[in-house]
Amino acid sequence: MLDGARYPTGTQISDELMQDLEDRALTRHGFRGERNYTLLPVLRPAPEPGPEPEPAPAAAARAAVLTALASPELTGLSRPGLAALAASLELPWAAAREQRLHLDRGHSRQARTGPAAPFRYTLETHLLAAICHHRLGMPYSHIAALLGAHYSTIAPAGQAITALLSAGHPALAPGPVRVRTPSDLRTYAATAGITIPDPPPRGRVRK
Known about the structure:
The structure is a single chain. The protein contains nine helices and four strands; from the N terminus they run H-E-E-H-H-H-H-E-H-H-H-H-E. It has helices at 15-25, 57-69, 72-75, 79-88, 90-105, 123-135, 140-147, 151-165, 182-191; strands at residues 26-28, 37-39, 119-120, 205-206. The protein starts with 14 loop residues before the first helix and ends with a strand.
């Protein structure tokens, strides 16, 4: 039977979605299972979500910093507006990330091995870093320090966000003040009644 459906090329699939498909749609054979497998006619049921774990101190500290940085007085955007902007970037961000990973690896994605990283900074975190850099003039090194992150994690992500938005995007327009250090930011935020918490301890993260 001729299949007349259209299948556009270049579609990017996230690592998480691919892993879910492998877990629920495939039965791998005992011999060379990476190549020999059966595609199930019906997906296996998704696993039941477990109870929400207690947030670790570092995660709670990081969330408090991000909540403060997302204040409209600092971003120039309402919180719903910030969330909507982050949502609009999800697909192009995922595609750009997969392309970067492909170039770094030099080959297509393979099955993951080894322990997973403790956490991954969210797209909204990277967006906040780019806004703080362009709107407030903060160097990425200081933004990384606020998040308990390393410069090499935050700076490339902020630059990637800038490339997706383009330099003329309103969210990246210079704001009413320019700050340089976390101390400068705390002083400016305090005038609007915003407290910037202490940064969390730096941990190992996925980019």
